[in-house]
Amino acid sequence: MKFKVDENACIGCGACQAICDEVFEISDEGYAVAKDEKVTDEEVKERAISALEGCPTDAIHSDEEED
Question: Domains in the chain, ordered, with CATH?
Answer without folding.
Answer: 3-62 (3.30.70.20)
